[in-house]
């Protein structure tokens, strides 16, 4: 074999692949957790927007705190675009005196974050 041959040996390529695999094993869980945190914050922001529109509707219609609010009451008069849960959940507006909730936050399987307004 020619000693001046330029190229990588099989061992060098395997070391590079091993290092790349270790870096990916460290980085991917962080990316997944960041995506889940982003979805949670987006859902909470949507719930706050729904709650604000519900409170505006209640003040304008002089509704009692036990009055039930539906999406038809607040959309499109008090909220331009009705929000959609980024985790494919459904929003429950509820009565005027309570905070809106998301169906994902009530799911016992997905308890990594709560979809309920603080």
Structure description:
The chain has 118 residues and is mostly helical. The chain has helices at residues 10-61, 71-74; strands at 91-92, 101-102. The chain has a two-stranded antiparallel ribbon with strand order 1-2. Strand 1 and strand 2 form a beta hairpin. It is rod-shaped. The model is unreliable at 107-113 (pLDDT under 50).
Write the layout of secondary structure elements.
Layout: H1 10-61, H2 71-74, E1 91-92, E2 101-102
Antiparallel strand pairs: 1-2
For this entry, give a set of tags.
mainly alpha; rod-shaped; two-stranded antiparallel ribbon; 118 residues
What is the H/E order?
Answer: HHEE
Radius of gyration: 25 Å
Tell me the overall shape: rod-shaped
User: If strands are numbered along the chain, what order do they take across the biggest sheet?
Assistant: 1-2
Total number of helices:
2
**How would you state the average pLDDT, rounded?**
86
Q: What is the number of E strands?
A: 2
Low-confidence stretches: 107-113
């Amino acid at each position: 074999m020619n000693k001046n041959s330029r190229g990588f040996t099989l061992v060098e390529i395997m070391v590079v692949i091993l290092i790349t695999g270790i870096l990916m094993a460290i980085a991917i869980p962080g990316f997944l957790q960041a995506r889940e945190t982003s979805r949670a914050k987006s859902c909470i922001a949507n719930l706050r927007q729904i709650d604000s529109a519900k409170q505006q509707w209640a003040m304008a219609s002089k509704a009692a705190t036990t009055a039930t609010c539906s999406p038809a009451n607040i959309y499109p008069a008090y909220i331009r675009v009705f929000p959609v849960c980024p985790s494919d959940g459904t929003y429950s507006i509820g009565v005027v005196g309570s905070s809106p909730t998301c169906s994902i936050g009530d799911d016992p399987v997905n308890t990594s974050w709560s979809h309920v307004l603080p």
